[in-house]
Amino acid sequence: MTFKEKWERLPRWLQVAAYTVLGLAAIGGVGFxxxxxxxxxxxxxxxxxxWGVAGAVILIGVVFGGFGSSRHSRKRxxxxxxxx
Length: 84
Known about the structure:
By secondary structure, this protein is mostly helical. Helices cover 76% and strands 0% of the residues.
């Protein structure tokens, strides 16, 4: 019996629970690596916690969300509407 067959025989709630745990672990891992990367870029020196977190939030927002674009404008561009 292959892994796929065994996986499909498991109850649905157990599959959802496994995917949830894996998803949370992936989010935590990406967050950990992101903050380590920021620490390496800054130089590893001790910094004020507030400004470090504020800079990380801004950097992550720019990297993942773009700079100054909103969801509304992205939806309009997808539909081909102009912003006149």
